[in-house]
């Protein structure tokens, strides 16, 4: 086991990068989902969603 | 176990960066979700939300400076890019020096870290140069 760690410790960097990229992508997805959910609330009520809310969908989320 | 710690103690720094970045993004997501929840309450009640609250949608939350405008954030992103070019570059040079002089008798390990830092510095440099927009 120790021998394995000594040989492949450098894998921490690409794996860490993958994990953080995946985590950020998931949060961005959740943010977009929440925005759409709010727009849906406005639609159900029969009114227009604020322009800023619609503009958010065109921006990359973080 | 102690031997493992003595060999890889320095990994705490890059790993902390991964954890901190993920945590910061999570806090940013939470702040954003709270704003959307509040807007939803206004929408459900059939009331117009305050313009300040709607304007917050154009801002990005960060833990040290509260909310920042996304347009100024793009400019800040370029500045941060240059900052990272210098930071990773200097770290790379430092680790290369540590590798050449074989500090702590861990020359090969430091060489790999120097490569990683150098790659990050160059990648950030390319990103900053490619994304350089017209000056406002």
Layout of helices and strands:
The complex is a heterodimer of chains A (62) and B (136).
Chain A: H1 2-8, H2 12-45, H3 51-56
Chain B: H1 2-8, H2 12-45, H3 51-55, E1 59-62, E2 66-69, H4 70-100, H5 107-130
Antiparallel strand pairs in B: 1-2
Helix pairs in contact in B: 4-5
Task: Describe, in short, the structure shown.
With 62 residues, chain A is mainly α.
Protein described:
The complex is a heterodimer of chains A (62) and B (136). Chain A has 62 residues and is mostly helical. Chain A is 76% helix and 0% strand. Chain A is built from three helices and no strands. The two termini of chain A are 38 Å apart. Chain B has 136 residues and is mainly α. Chain B has a two-stranded antiparallel ribbon. In chain B, strand 1 and strand 2 form a beta hairpin. In chain B, helix 4 runs antiparallel to helix 5. Chain B is elongated, with a radius of gyration of 21 Å. The model of chain B has no long low-confidence stretch (mean pLDDT 83). Classes of the chains: A mainly alpha (62), B mainly alpha (136). Chains A and B meet through helix 1, helix 2 and helix 3 of A and helix 1, helix 2 and helix 5 of B.
What is the terminal-to-terminal distance of chain B?
A: 55 Å
**Low-confidence parts of chain B:** none
Overall average residue pLDDT of chain B: 83
Helix residue percentage of chain A: over 70%
The outline of chain A comes out as rod-shaped
CA radius of gyration of chain A? 20 Å
| Secondary structural class of chain A | mainly alpha
Oligomer state equals heterodimer
Protein chain pair with the most extensive contact, residues per chain: A-B, 31 and 32 residues
Helix content of chain B: over 70%
Order of helices and strands of chain B: HHHEEHH
How many DSSP-defined strands of chain B? Answer: 2
SSE pattern of chain A, N- to C-terminal: HHH
Terminal CA distance of chain A reads 38 Å
**Physical arrangement of strands within the biggest beta sheet of chain B:** 1-2
Work out the helix count of chain A.
Answer: 3
pLDDT averaged residue by residue of chain A: 86
